Amino acid sequence: MKVVAIIPARYDSSRFPGKPLVKIEGITMIERVYKQSSLAKTIQYIVVATDDDRIAATVKSFGGNVVLTSKNHLTGTDRLAEVAKNNPDYDIIINVQGDEPLINPKTIDAAVQPLLDDPKVQMSTIATPLYDEERINNPSQVKVVIDNNNNALYFSRLPIPYNRDNNKNQKVLGHIGLYVYRRESLLKLTSLSPSPLELAESLEQLRALSNGIGIKVIEQNYHPLAVDVPADIVPVEQALKAMQTNFSSL
Predict the structure, then answer these.
(1) Which of 196, 4, 187, 213 is nearest to 93 (CA)?
(2) Assessment of whether the complete model's pTM goes beyond 0.85
């Protein structure tokens, strides 16, 4: 069974054009994401999917695998599907976000494992406990509720579940946008029209739930540092320096 990580990367980001090529402590973000992902034990192959020659050239320069895809894709998931469609030997596909240069390889492995263990699992993702009220109430932080078997029931930008009695022990799970798909499920998902729930919340994963594609949720104590705007580079570089300091002190 071939497990492949695909990193969708586009140059024309509205908030941060050229983001994959920005340098973080002297190394481009796309290279950092690629090399961090390569540390995951479950991954057998990594490829960057891009529509930009500059990104493709950069990936080739550090010895990475890259494929040029259509410029017409609306989402990174559609870009993944193009690669999957052209590679029938890709059995399990991981959508690695290209804006998380410090992505934890152990978190990738945790997301992949359910699909390796159970052939009935079609899709998986990661969630982490939220304790900060600001994050819980922030619509940019997606929340997820799960059933007793750790399958997603719903994703929302609102705080869910609603804490009617103000129970201090109420658990809130924040969703982390790392997805793992079986190839067939990915191709099915991208062939479907957006669902009403997806359009209401602007959350693509609700298309899967609306069409009977279950999503296994793996809980991890993991809070990624994503780069959405130029100002986000500073905390990432600070975290890198802290990691290097801790490593050198061992």
Answers:
(1) 4
(2) yes
Rounded to 5, what percent of the chain is helix, strand, coil? 35, 25, 40
Residues 235 and 20: beta-carbon distance below 8 Å: no
Q: What sign does the CA torsion over 60, 74, 136, 6 have?
A: negative
CA–CA distance, 110 with 92 (Å, rounded to integer)? 14
Which is nearest to 104 in space by CA: 41, 174, 58? 41
Helix (H, G, I), strand (E, B) or coil at 242: helix
Residues in the chain: 250
Beta strand extents in 77-188 (DSSP E only): 92-95, 123-130, 143-146, 152-156, 172-182
Mean of the pLDDT values across residues 75-103?
A: 96
Residue 11, amino acid: Y
**Which pLDDT score, from 0 to 100, does residue 14 have?**
74
93 DSSP β-pair partners? 4, 181
Q: Give the integer Cα–Cα distance in Å for 197 and 68.
A: 32
